[in-house]
Amino acid sequence: MHSSPISDARETTNGRPSEARNGSQRPPTVATGEVAATQLQTKQADGAKPSLSAIPLRALQTEARAFEFGRLQYSPWNWRSIDVDQSLYVDAALRHILAYAHEEPYDRESGVHHLGHARACLAILLDAEAAGRLKRDIPRCG
């Protein structure tokens, strides 16, 4: 008895599709996360805009507090008026991440969460890179 294409598609072995009766290999099944990633890649390739609402609100708010502290201490968008030294912001981001990792959640000077400061540093690097204002002063490995 020959099975239909629909029933063939449902036959699996150990969670993987079995070979078709003619010997051809079926494509592997895709886990939910992989489907989402594939859909995202497809949408990005089609020029669809990323979903900014997918970023946790707490992360955005904490990053905004770090930017607000910087705005008051320096000036708004101050990094855009000069070339940005990559090492300055990479070092600052790593200092904030390490302070957080060593159980100091909040920056003593600003009172802002260290991860908010780290996110702000990384955002400035991305912005400077996109604007062509990033000065890559960290030596390449190798």
Word description of this protein:
This protein is mainly alpha-helical. The chain contains five helices and four strands. The protein has two domains: 5-52, no CATH class; 55-135, no CATH class. Helices cover 49% and strands 6% of the residues. α3 (57-73) packs across α5 (114-130). Residues 1-28 have low confidence and may be disordered.
Topology:
Elements (H helix, E strand, L loop, with lengths): L4 H6 L1 E2 L2 E2 L14 H14 L11 H17 L10 E2 H16 L12 H17 L3 E2 L7
Parallel strand pairs: 3-4
Antiparallel strand pairs: 1-2
Helix pairs in contact: 3-5, 4-5
List keywords for this structure.
globular; single chain; 142 residues; mainly alpha; 2 domains; two-stranded antiparallel sheet; 5 helices; disordered N terminus
Shape: globular
> Which structural class best describes the helix and strand composition?
mainly alpha
Beta strand % = 5-15%
- How far apart lie the N and C ends? 62 Å
- Round the Cα radius of gyration to an integer and report it: 24 Å
The domain count comes to 2
> What's the helix-strand series?
HEEHHEHHE
Helix content: 40-55%
Which consecutive residue ranges, at least 5 long each, have pLDDT under 50?
1-28
Largest sheet: 2 strands, antiparallel
Instruction: Report the total helices.
Output: 5
The pLDDT mean sits at: 80
Q: Nutshell version of this structure?
A:
The chain is 49% helix and 6% strand. The chain is mainly alpha-helical and 142 residues long.
